[in-house]
Amino acid sequence: MSTPAPRTPAGIDLEALDSITDAVESGAGLPEVIRAAARALDASLALTDAASTVLAVAARSPADERSLMSDADGVDVVDLRVADEPVGQLRVRARSDAEASPMVLRLVTALVASEVQRVRAPARASEQAVIEFVHDLLGRRLTDGDDVLARAEAIGLDVAPGASVLVVRAQLHVTTEEGWRERVVTAAERGARAAVPGAIASSSGRPEAPGAEVVILLPSAEAADAERASGSVLRELQASLTGHTFALGRSRVAGGPAELGRAANEALLAANVAEADGDADDGQRILAFDDTGAYRLLLSAMSEDPAELQRFYAETIEPLVAYDDQYETELVSTVEAFLDADGNVAGTAQRLFTHRHTIRYRLERVRELSGLDVGSTDGREKLSLGLKAMRVLGIAARGGPASEQGAGGGRVPRRS
User: How far apart are CA 82 and CA 299, in angstroms?
Assistant: First the structure.
């Protein structure tokens, strides 16, 4: 039998209290501190700063979170102060009839207040200004270093020493109410700010992006900070949003303002690859641009002449995608599996749980539609590059992430 956690006579979980101090001392961030505080108080908690920005939430459900942020019955609001200076509020709703000890509540709020003071979120610029800045970076309309620096400073972002970019993709797999995309942005920003306090997040606003797509700007010259922020964002998303899968792309560090646009597109590429080529069993994947392998070779083509990359895709894989869409076949996935199996038909059949004759028939259809013979080295190379071009362009095959209703079939509109 397991040994129960030590408790005080008043029923206080000392182990939960220890976990708060551990989270503070380790710099795990406000979301982890609040989750530990929720366990110690046996309560749902929502933490806001002095400007009423939500910094962290530990709730049982989205409905519980909304209730915490309203004036619902049973919600107590505790003002947080450090040296008589207001730093925020802690909204508390007990999960049982037992009341928390005033001493424990005071201890918890003091720890939380000091942590808020340490990592206080910067003053937030208007949401529209942030969105426009992100749009211009992704659209390659903002390339001059001085312009980038001035626009970044206007939204409270210091990118002069260096910065990196995260792109988050969230796909919903359960029925939910409206507003889930906004919750993805909020949770992603909470996670990012837990690791890099000056981080700013925004919806990408790209109408062709399926699901929810969030761009996070991390003002730090350290690659380790970006890596830590990636893990923090994924943990916060998983804790806050059930029934979703997530893919995160992380750029290299931009050494100066002029390189931030390049970093944004690196993160976008990494997210495309993570989503379309992910191998995580739980559907959650973080991929750094440095780890995209051969895909990196296509980024310059995407940046300098995306039309040429689109043409190469059109000459190789697009006919297969169109055929799959029209007849609900699996030609693209068969080519992927065939290449992964090093051109072995039996291995492909095993991967797809399909008879070898079916695989040979599909590969013959591939040759007829694309003009490329998988039996030749040249044909396999072109098809492999065509698949990579498809992912760099952000186009998903039938049944992939871009099949959500209203997504237009992919991130780059397909030809009629």
Answer: 48
CATH of the domain at 141: 3.30.70.270
**Is 191 part of a structural domain of the chain?**
yes
pLDDT in tens, 281-314: 455 789 898 888 777 777 666 666 778 888 889 9
- Do 202 and 84 sit in the same domain of this protein? no
Report the C-alpha gap between 141 and 61 in whole angstroms: 40
Q: Which domain holds residue 329?
A: 306-403
Tell me which residue of 29, 262, 232, 269 sits closest to 159, measured CA to CA.
262
Check whether residue 132 and residue 71 sit in a common domain: no
- Clarify whether residues 49 and 138 are in a common domain: no
Sign of CA dihedral 46, 50, 51, 56: negative
Which among 88, 118, 148 is the end of a domain?
118
Residue that is written with structure tokens 């969230």 in the block: 170
What CATH number is associated with residue 73? 3.30.450.40
Using one digit for the tens of pLDDT, what is the confidence trace for 33-79? 888 888 888 888 888 887 777 888 888 888 888 888 887 788 888 88
The predicted model scores a pTM of: 0.62
